[in-house]
Write a structure and sequence with these properties.
Number of helices: 0
Oligomer: single chain
Radius of gyration: 13 Å
Strand order of the largest sheet: 2-1-5-6
Distance between the termini: 28 Å
Number of strands: 6
Shape: globular
Structural class: mainly beta
Strand content: over 45%
Helix content: under 10%
Length: about 70
């Protein structure tokens, strides 16, 4: 993912609502730093899928689904 122009965390809840969250890549003084942890906003009730989303190309770069929604 180092060459992806605008990677973001994206989550999908059990109702199919999609939430675009923080950028995955943060600029650092030396190189790029990747944000590996996310904090869900209070309005996201559960998560059934996590997606790495390129906001620039509007493309799914990878995803992970849960067998049952995580609260």
């Amino acid at each position: 993912m180092p060459d992806t122009p605008d990677p973001h965390w994206q989550v999908v809840d059990s109702d199919g609502q999609v939430y675009l969250l923080d950028k995955l890549k943060k600029k650092a003084f030396i190189g790029d730093k990747y944000q590996k942890d996310i904090v869900l906003p209070g309005y996201v009730k559960n998560v059934s899928k996590v997606i790495i989303w390129c906001a620039w190309a509007e493309a799914n770069l990878g995803e992970a689904s849960f067998s049952s929604p995580v609260k």
